[in-house]
Design brief:
Shape: globular
CATH topology of the largest domain: Rossmann fold
Number of helices: 19
Radius of gyration: 24 Å
Number of strands: 27
Distance between the termini: 48 Å
Strand content: 15-25%
CATH architecture of the largest domain: 3-Layer(aba) Sandwich
CATH class of the largest domain: Alpha Beta
Amino acid sequence: MSGSTATRMPVDAFLDMAARRGSDIAMEQPVGGGVLREYSWSSFEDEARRMASYLKSLNLPDKSNIGLISKNCAEWIIADLAILMAGHVSVPLYPTLTDVSVRQILEHCGAPVLFVGKLDDWEHMESGVPAGVKMIAFSLAPESAKQKNPEWSQIIAENSPLKDLPVRTPDELATIIYTSGTTGMPKGVMQSFGNLADIGGRMDKTYPISEGDRVISYLPLSHVAERAAIEMSMFYVGLKVCFAESLETFGDDLRRTRPNLFFGVPRIWSKFYQKASEAMPPKKLNKLLRIPILNRIVKKKILTAMGLDDCRIALSGAAALSPDLIDWFKSLGLEVLEVYGMTENMGWSHATPKGGQCIGSVGIASDGVMCRIGDAGEVQVKSPGNMMGYYREPELTEEAFIDGWLRTGDVGVIDSEGRLKITGRVKEIFKTEKGKYVAPAPIENRLVSLPGVEQACVMGPDLSQPIALLNLAAEQEAHLRGSGKAEFHKALEELLVKVNAELDAHERLQCLIVAQEPWTIEANLLTPTLKLKRNELEKLYHERVASWSNQRGVIWG
C-alpha cells in the first residue's frame, strides 16, 4: 500500500544524529520537585542500546509486538527506539485507556511484553493486562508497578549496550498504532519502516525546522501526530525535546521550554484564549493594540505569558480551529497554521505553509502527497505515509482503499489554489426531517469560539431543525456558581444569533443546551485525543432530545 524513497531507516537516522551531536542535550525531563534530568544524544543512545540488549535476552520470537503504555517522557522515546533496535515491533497504547481497552488491544496484538510508565490510573488499568505478559517499569511509573516488575534503572545498570543491531528493511512492519476508537474497537494501523523513514526525511521540507530547535512533548506520543512531529523530527532533524511534567504544571513547562515549534489541538488553542481573556478581556486588548506605542509591548507580554514568544511555527490539527481564534492569535502576531492528516497516513496529508493562512482550509497537499475528491465528496489521498493496512483485519483494510487511494472518511472540497477544505465526516452528516443534509463539524467549530465553551455537539437526525449541546470548561462552571450565570446566558444568546446568521436556513439551530454532565474520557464520551464520541452522546441524551427540539433559545439542561 505504500513505498519509500528514503534510504535511512529511523534507527540509522538516530544513530547518525547521535554520532554528530554527541554531548548536546537531546531531551529534558522533569522528574519532580523542580528537578530536570537532561539526556545527551550519547546517553540517549547508550540507554536505548542497553534496553535493546535486555529485550534480546528475553529470547522473544523475532518481530514480536511489544506494548508501551505511558504518558510522554524521555523513557517512552528511548523504549520505542530500543524495541526497534532489538528487532521487534512497537505497539503504543494511550495512557488514558480503561482496563477493558487495554485488554482488547494487548490480546489483539498478542504482545508478550509491556512497558509501563508514567500513569495516573494504573491501579485500574493493571487488571486489563492479560496473564503472562511481562512488564517493565519506567523510572516514573507508579510505585506499585516498580515494586512488582523489573525497573528501568536496574535494567540499564545490569545490561551492556547491544552492539550488533538488526537490519530493518523499508517494507518491514515497524509499529502498530491503534486508532482512538470513536466508534468502537480501535483498529491497529500498521506502519512500515519505509513509511517512518519517508515521513521523517520530509519533516523539514514543509516548515523551516533545524537542529537544536526546541519543542515541548505533551500530546500523547501514542498518537500519530506527536510520533511524527516530535519523535521522527527528533531523529531526522535533531530537535531538542522537552517534556511537560503534568497538566497542572503545563503553563510553567511551556514557559520553561519556549518552543520554536508548537503543535496544539483546537482545545489547547481555546484554553490559551480563555486564560488570556480572563486576564485581559478582548475589548480591552483590541483598544490597546490600536495604540502604536503599546502594540508591540502588549503582544510580547501576552505571548511571553503563554510561553510562545519564541514560537516560529504554530500548528493546529485534529479538528477545525475556530476562525475567531485564528484572528485573535493573528492580532498578536502569531500565525496559527492548520494541518491535516490521520493515523492511516502517518499524519502526512496536508499543511498550510507559513504566510499562507486561509481560514477554513487545512492547506495544500504535503510533499509527496496526491489528493482527490471521490464519491459523495470524500477526500482520498495517496501519501508516502499510507498504511500497510489494519493489523489482522484484511476486510477492513480492503474497505479503506479504493484503487490504491486511502479513503479518509472526511468530506471536503479543493479550491483553485489546491487548498483543501474539510466540510464534515461522511458518517456524521445527517438529514433533518425536511430532507436537508447538515454537516455538524463546521457549526460546532463556530460554537466553541466563545470563551467558556469547551465542546459542542450538533444533533438533528429527523428533527425539524438541528440543536446543539454545549459542555463548559471547568473554569466557566466555577464562575457560574458565583454571579456570572446571567451574563453568560446573555453571551450564549448572542452566540446563537451570530452563528445562525452565518448558516443556511436548514442548518440554523433551534436552541443551545448547556449540558450538566461533564464530557470526559472517563465517562466514555471523548476519545483519548479528545474527539467527541457522537454515538455515546446520542445514546446519553436520546430521551431528552425530542423535548429540547420544541424549545428555543438557551436551555440549561
